[in-house]
Amino acid sequence: MKKPATTKNDLVRDEILRAAKDLFQTYGLKKTTMEDIAEACRRRSGIPQFSPV
After folding, report:
1. Which of 11, 16, 8 is nearest to 36 (CA)?
2. Model confidence, pTM
3. pLDDT of the residue at 41
4. Once rounded to an integer, what is the mean pLDDT over residues 6-27?
5. List of residues 6+ apart from 17 with CB closer than 8 A
6. Per-residue DSSP letters for 1-53?
């Protein structure tokens, strides 16, 4: 079976999930904020914002 094409949204989502996982492991679920995750993504890959459609 052929793997579906990776879209930009897929790449952004994967980056957000990686950043969130790293922060959750470091600081825990209760201390990690959405702002922390967004900042980690911007530092890693220059993603200014992400709005799922």
Report:
1. 16
2. 0.69
3. 85
4. 91
5. none
6. -PPPPPPHHHHHHHHHHHHHHHHHHHH-TTT--HHHHHHHHHHHH--------
